[in-house]
Design a protein that fits this description.
mainly beta; Beta-galactosidase, Chain A, domain 5; ten-stranded antiparallel sheet; nine-stranded antiparallel sheet; 21 strands; globular
């Protein structure tokens, strides 16, 4: 059984499965973008890095802006909405999202406004999220409808971005004990060899490894076949960053002559859909149902 409660005073929506906390959608304007944290296994172990929300011994404390699970991009109409350094923009929830349970899924629906560093209105995002439990699996579907309401909106070509992004726990880092694999059959595991999965196009990528209690868990992120630029490129690194980024081609290919920017003409929109499958086990073969939910998403 899944449940979701809105806590407006705390600017968060709390999702519980069978009475146990699964995740919180945090949208307060004390940070520059909404994000999910914590994200927990059924036994309560973290599936994302805790920093900077919490201080956990043994965790890497780099990249302050990698907060749990989130959406961001480093070049929108020339402005940086990825990191949180001087001069960054912001993605702010407009009021409180609408939440509820429908068809056995927790639903979060609302508007996220994207601003430049001086309050410039860049675009409007209608963000719709559905979360459900399928046995031991947790499925998160996100639909982002980017609306160029004010003028043309351009997602610039930079690797610093992710329309669906996760910072995995340090124990899962593929440069150490973790594993990254993609739909093209490329694997980077236990820090062995080059990071062959970085900057590649793939229909899905799985990042798995041990969590704090020693269990093996993984995140599979799926790029929907109808998304612009499918199959997307992936900014996925052995140090724990995991993003679907279709706009970083000149970095990924090391060719400054390339420009994979995407402009949404004023008054138009672009829709991106992603599925996250959280699963026990190492790799997509670590649980027998992962492949089925990858396939189901592509025909939906």
């Amino acid at each position: 059984m899944i449940d979701i409660e809105l806590h407006p005073a705390d600017c968060k929506a709390v999702v519980a499965i069978n009475g146990q906390l699964f995740t919180e959608y945090r949208y307060g304007h004390y940070v520059c973008r909404p994000y999910f944290y914590p994200v927990l296994t059924p036994s309560g172990t973290g599936l994302t890095r805790a920093y900077p929300m919490e201080d956990v011994a043994g965790e890497n404390q780099d990249h302050y802006h990698h907060r749990g699970m989130y959406t961001a991009h480093g070049l929108v109409n020339g402005h940086n909405l990825w990191d949180e350094g001087t001069g960054h923009g912001a993605m702010l929830q407009r009021g409180d999202p609408v939440v509820g349970v429908a068809d056995s899924a927790a639903q979060i629906d609302g508007i996220v406004d994207w601003f430049g560093p001086e309050g410039e209105k860049l675009l409007e995002e209608r963000r719709t999220i559905a979360i459900r439990a399928e046995g031991a699996l947790r499925i998160v579907d996100q639909r982002s409808e980017f609306r160029a309401r004010y003028s043309d909106a351009t997602f610039g070509d930079t690797k610093e971005g992710g329309l669906f992004a996760i910072r995995v726990p340090t124990s899962m880092d593929a440069k150490d004990a973790g594993r990254i694999e993609n739909s093209a059959g490329q694997v980077f595991e236990n820090g062995q060899g080059p990071e062959v999965t970085w900057g590649q196009q793939a229909a899905w990528v799985d990042y798995s490894g041990p969590v704090a209690n020693g269990e093996e868990w993984g995140h599979t992120v799926v790029d929907h076949r109808d998304n612009p630029r499918h199959p997307t490129y992936w900014h996925v690194r052995g140090y724990g960053l995991f993003t679907a980024n279709p706009f970083g081609v000149h970095d990924f290919k090391g060719d400054e002559s390339l420009d994979a920017s995407l402009t949404i003409p004023g008054g138009d929109k672009a829709v991106f859909r992603y599925r996250l499958i959280i699963h026990p086990g190492r790799g997509v073969d670590g649980h027998p149902d992962v492949g089925r939910f990858i396939e189901q998403f592509q025909v939906g």
